[in-house]
Amino acid sequence: MWFTKAQSLFSQSKTTESHIFQFFDCVTAAHHQFMQLWQIYLTQGAQCADFDQTLASLSQIESKADDLQRQIDARLYGGTLIPDLRADVALLIDQADKLINLQETIGIHLKVEQPTVPSEVHPSLLAQIQIVGDTLDHTVLCAKSFLTDLQRVQEYHQKVILFESDANSMCIKAKTILFSSDLELTHKVQLRYFFDRIDAVANLAEDISDRISIFTLKRLQ
């Protein structure tokens, strides 16, 4: 009953639906830029045009997501969705926006601090970022399914849990390699901050997926 009614309401407000899906596309696009940012940093450093352009693109995506969030909130509380669904969708959008914000913040700190990354750490660092991306991708799929196909939510939620666990394991591996290197301790501690903040992106994605799972179970009962 709820799913049928939600579909009907969205069919009457295609703009709201379009904005929500555009917002989640921003989450995907932001991580793509984040991954590129690190690839550029490890090969060219932060003092190059490619790094600045990629960081600027990430910031533009963050600004677009903020604009979309404001438009979505205005329409949600303008009466386009049933009250119970409004609150859940608004909370979901707010939490997902933090995924973009966190990655932009890491990018800015990378530009400012320019930590030394030993070459032996590069593969595990890039692998960690890739797995975080898998976690985000399936969180986005979980979120979109919440609005279009409730039966798929638990499938994507379970994959998010697995990817987040892999991301955490890769973070530990990267830090283990880091602290086994000849880098000075102060530089190791500085770089550990970046590993932990990248891992925090996956943790937040899992938290969002957990919320979606609860929202879904509540409506399937």
Automatic annotation (TrEMBL):
Gene3D superfamilies: Phosphate transport system protein phou homolog 2, domain 2. Belongs to the UPF0111 family. This is DUF47 family protein.
